[in-house]
Every structure is written in C-alpha cells, then in structure tokens.
Give the backbone structure.
Amino acid sequence: MASTIKVMIVDDSDEVRESLRMLLGTLEVVEVLAEARNGEEALRRLEVAHPDIVLMDLNMPVMDGVEATERISAAFPHVAVIVLSVQDDVEYVRRSMRAGARDYLFKPVTADGLLQAMHEVHASSTRRTSQNTVALLADRFTRQTRVVACVSAKGGVGKTTVAVNTAAALADQGRRVAFVDCDLQFGDAALMLNAKPDRTLADLCHDAAEIDGELVEGYMLQVSTNLWLLPAPLRPEAAEYVSPGHLRLVLQALRRRFDFVVVDTAPVANDAFFAVLESSDDVLCISTQNVAVLKNNRLLLDLLEQVGAELEAPVRHVLTRASSARGGIRVRDVEQVLNGPVFAEIDNDYPFVEGSINEGVPFVWSHRGHRLSKQVFVLAAKLEEETGHRLHRRSPLRRLAPR
Ligand SMILES: Nc1ncnc2c1ncn2[C@@H]1O[C@H](COP(=O)(O)OP(=O)(O)OP(=O)(O)O)[C@@H](O)[C@H]1O
Ligand SMILES: [Mg+2]
C-alpha cells in the first residue's frame, strides 16, 4: 500500500475548495491536511501543517498563487506546489514554473489526473532537480499526444495489421510513437514487430504499486528509433493482472511523453475495452466488406452511442482488405451501414500482408513504395492532419488538462 500523500488546498473560492476536497476524498491514498483562501493564509498554515503537496490556485486576493509558490519554494523546499488554474496562457505556466511549481494542471481536473500528477510529483520530489523538472514540463507543455485506439467487433479483420503499420508509419515520419497492446489475452503486436519482450503490460500492472510515466517507459521495448512497444501479456491467463483502472493509468501516464499512443484492442466490448476508449482521442474502427463484420461493428457503434458521455473520441472508419469485387458490398454500402464516411481504405492483398506478418516487419518499413504502404501513409497523414485541425479549433494548452 502506498504511503498517504498529505495535501493542502489553496483557493479563494469556497466552492472550488469544497469540490477539490470531495474529489480528493474519493482517493484513499490522499489526506487533506489544511485549506487556505490565499497565499498569505497558506504560508501561515504551513508553519503548523506539514503537507507533501500544495494545490495552488493562481488568481487570489491578498497574495496570489505565483508569489505564494515562490515563497513556499524558498521557505519550505520539501513541499511541492502543483498549480491548478483556469489560465491557459503559457505566460502563467512559465511564471509558475519559475516560481518553483512542480506541475501545472488546468481546471477542471479529474480525480485520476490529479492523483497521477500528485504521485509523479511526490515520487520524484527526492530525485528530480528543479532544473530538469522545468525541462520535463516544457516538454509536456509542447507535446500534443493523440491516443488512437484501433477497434473492431469482429476478430481477424486486420485490426492489428492496421494498428502496427499505422504506428510504424507515424514513427517513420519522425513522430515519437508508443504502441500499447491491449489485446490482453492474444495480443500479437510484438510478433508483428519482431520484438522479444522480457516484460509486458501484465508485469507492469503486477509489479507496480503506483503507475507513473517513467515507470511505464521502463517496461517498454524500443522497436525502432521512434517506436516503443508496451507488449500484451505473454500468456492469456496473465491478462487478469491488468484491470481497467490500470489501463486508464497507463494511457494517462503515456500522455505528453509521446506524440502518438496507438492502442490495439481485442474484439470484446468489456470493461477493459471501454477503459481504453475513454482514454482515447481517436478511435479507428476497422471493417471489411463482410456482412458479419459490418453487422457487429454497427452493433458496437450503437453500444458506444448508448454509453455516450464518457466517450468523446470521434470514431473514424477504416475499410481494410478492400476490393472492388467483394460479393456485391460497395464502399457506399459500408458507409451506409456504419452511418459515416470511410476515413481510409487499405486494399486486399493477402500474400503481401501475410509475408510481412510472418517476417515481423511492418510493410510500411519493408515495402515503402507498395500500394498498401502508401495507403497506410495516407491514413497516418490524415490522422496528423486531424490533430493539426483540432489544434486550431481548440487551444493547444487545453490538451494538457487531465481527462
Ligand atoms: N489488407 C489486407 N489484405 C489481406 N489480408 C489481410 C489484410 N490485413 C490483414 N490481413 C490478414 O488478416 C489476418 C488477420 O489480421 P490481423 O491479425 O491484423 O487481424 P486482427 O483483426 O487483429 O485479428 P485478431 O482479432 O485475431 O486480433 C491475417 O492473416 C492477415 O494476413
Ligand atoms: Mg489483432
């Protein structure tokens, strides 16, 4: 059991303090020691209370959060300040970090996001210098991670082939990519990437009392310059070590450390599957021109619509093994059944794909000029383009807010 993290809440709004207290009350490992309504009050309380972490608002009367952070860092260097603010202006982040804040989260925060930040700050308080904390945060600040889940309600459609080659194509384009194999019982991404894992997602979840980004990276296998793999358990029975909560923490921990996190899933709509979807920014739904595949994916889409609220990621349809002579099912029909446009198409070429799987090298790497590789590069480019569009529509800083 992890030791308790002692927290002080500093915010001038009674409502915010109350909601933070309630949020933190749901976390067993956290104890709220004290509260203050401004920086001055916080400094006074720190003379008697000894928290590990101060959750600090910025705009407050009497003494604001930046000044309070500066004074706390000087007078109580063992106390870590995490700024919680609605300010998404980079200048506020810089000022807070210069004042000595250890992290900066945007309101509203979630319990998971807050817990993760507190764990990271708490765990690293003895081993990290303030200088590399700033570097780490600067890196996080500029990184716009996209978590992309590949799903299909039917097995054997070519989902892992799409996932692995998309990740490889993004890595080839210079993106730092994490591949997380969440096909927990029969994941075969390691095989398709010719990787021989010593440690897997199951070992991570089994060994670790706390999951943070540094730890997760320690369980990943570097496959190429830009591609890292967190392999699925090596044996089906080891899947039980991985809970939906673990998956949320792992995917959250990888945010801001990679440009893309590509997640492969099993064709089972269980809690683990929904945990992945809740943690994703984009969902690639893989279909083929097959009535059973289309019927099951249609059912899956209906199910996603029913659970609605938590699943914000748009679903994009990828048609794989596509052929013009497919038993009368045309792309138009696919779009009609799935009630959405086909985002990307990958042709049918069994010997070619099978060769690449058996060789253990993504075809986008071994046969860059092949028709299928070009189609996957287009898919990867479209994913990037989407990201770019979103950044125009939404403040990039908002992407740093924990989800
Ligand atoms: N574009 C394609 N053209 C022809 N065959 C393909 C194509 N993509 C995949 N396949 C074949 O489909 C089979 C299944 O592929 P893959 O393992 O990627 O599917 P999956 O949906 O991940 O399966 P599972 O549900 O078992 O995880 C493989 O034999 C592969 O060769
Ligand atoms: Mg698969």
Remarks:
- Residues 126-132, 389-403 have pLDDT under 50 and may be disordered.
- The longest strand covers residues 315-322.
